[in-house]
Amino acid sequence: MDTLNSIVTSDLSLWGLFISSFLAATLLPGGSEAVLFGVLKLHPDLFWPALLLGTVGNTLGGMVTFGMGWMLPQTQQLKHVDKVRQHGAPALVLAWVPLVGDALCLAAGWLRLNWWQAALFMAIGKFARYWVIALASQY
């Protein structure tokens, strides 16, 4: 019974992490760092699955914000978009930064940047942030 309980608990923890990571990367308020830290404190054996699911969920949430920006009409200039235009998709490495990251994703979509490059650079930045948090949970 302990094995079944452990499996169910770890599966629910991973699903909760994925959902938390996804929602935290949209325009909704929330943070997933504490969820990742908690999952890894309870289940240190889930280091890589938690790190990867958190990254995927957070990247997909960022791409939702990117898509929202894509749907905005381009009739007016949005504030601070020139910085994103100047740096292009690599600027999305900073998509993990609270508050700024959401604006970057929205601006990148509004600028119609290449979606797969946007996803790649978002994932790199988000993975790096989660990796640092995951490493910290090991101590």
Automatic annotation (TrEMBL):
<keyword id="KW-0812">Transmembrane</keyword>
<dbReference type="InterPro" id="IPR051311">
    <property type="entry name" value="DedA_domain"/>
</dbReference>
<feature type="transmembrane region" description="Helical">
    <location>
        <begin position="116"/>
        <end position="136"/>
    </location>
</feature>
<protein>
    <submittedName>
        <fullName>Putative inner membrane protein</fullName>
    </submittedName>
</protein>
<keyword id="KW-0472">Membrane</keyword>
<feature type="transmembrane region" description="Helical">
    <location>
        <begin position="46"/>
        <end position="70"/>
    </location>
</feature>
<feature type="transmembrane region" description="Helical">
    <location>
        <begin position="91"/>
        <end position="110"/>
    </location>
</feature>
<keyword id="KW-1133">Transmembrane helix</keyword>
<feature type="transmembrane region" description="Helical">
    <location>
        <begin position="12"/>
        <end position="40"/>
    </location>
</feature>
